[in-house]
Amino acid sequence: MKNLIVLKVITAVLVISILFSLFSCMNEDRIEVPPVKLENINGNYKGRLITVQGELKAEKIVDFKIKKDTLTFPEFPLKEIVTAVVKDPVKVQNALAAMGKVKYNLNYNAAVNADKNWVELTFAPKDLELQIPVDGVNKKTVVTLAAKQKGYFSGLDYTLRFALAAEKITVNGTALNPFEPIYYNFPYCIKTN
C-alpha cells in the first residue's frame, strides 16, 4: 500500500514538472523584438576587429561612425597594408608614425527586412589611396577593398556585424605579387550613442 502511494506521488510530481516545463517553453517563444528603422543605425560605434592575412591573425577594438549612407573610420587600420608594402618591421613603424591617422568612408545602401527586426547593409567600397613614406620616398599605394557579404544591424541589441577585404594592393602602378588578401572582420560592434 505504501509503495502504491509513493508511486502515485512520484507520478504526480513528474506530471506537474512536465506541465511547468511545457508552459515555460511556450512563454519563451513570445520574445518581442522591437521594430527597427533605417535611422536607428546612425551613431557612433565601438567594434571588435579581427584582421586575418594568411596564417596571421590580430584583434583590436576600433571606433567608427555611421551617418545616413556612410560608415566612417576616423582611423582605418593600416598596419597589415603597410607591412605588405614595406616588409621591414622598423620601417613599417616609421611609415605608420609618419602617415598618422587615415580616414576612410565606406558607402552603403540599407534596407529593413520584412519583419522589421534588422537592417541589411550592402557595401560599396572605394579604393583606399595612400602615400606610404619609405626611405624618404612616398610610395603611391592603392588598396582595392571589397565586401563579399552584406552587413547586418540587429534591432534586438543594436549591434552591427560586417566584413571587408583588401583584395589587391598596387604600388606605383604595379600589383604586389605574391599578396595574401587581408580580411577585416567585424563580428560584434556596439552602438555607443
Describe this structure in words.
20% of the residues are buried. The chain has two domains: 1-31; 38-191. The chain is built from three helices and eleven strands; from the N terminus they run αβββααββββββββ. The chain is elongated. Helix content is 24%, strand content 46%. It is an alpha+beta fold. The mean pLDDT is 88. An eight-stranded antiparallel β-barrel has the order 1-2-3-4-5-8-9-11. The longest helix is centred in the first third of the chain and has 27 residues, at 2-28. This is DUF4840 domain-containing protein.
Topology of this structure?
Elements: H1 2-28, E1 43-53, E2 56-67, E3 70-73, H2 79-86, H3 89-99, E4 104-112, E5 118-124, E6 128-134, E7 137-146, E8 151-154, E9 159-171, E10 174-175, E11 182-191
Antiparallel strand pairs: 1-2, 1-11, 2-3, 3-4, 4-5, 5-8, 6-7, 7-9, 8-9, 9-10, 9-11
Helix pairs in contact: 2-3
Pfam family, one: DUF4840
Transmembrane segments: 5-23
Protein name: DUF4840 domain-containing protein
Comma- or semicolon-separated keywords:
single chain; 193 residues; alpha+beta; 3 helices; 11 strands; elongated; DUF4840 domain-containing protein; membrane
What is the overall silhouette? elongated
Rounded mean pLDDT score: 88
The arrangement of helices and strands along the chain is: HEEEHHEEEEEEEE
Number of helices in the DSSP assignment: 3
Described by strand count, sense and barrel closure, the largest sheet is: 8 strands, antiparallel, barrel
* Helix content range: 10-25%
**How many distinct beta strands?**
11
Which percent range describes the beta-strand content? Answer: over 45%
Spatial separation of the terminal alpha carbons? 68 Å
Question: Rg, please?
Answer: 26 Å
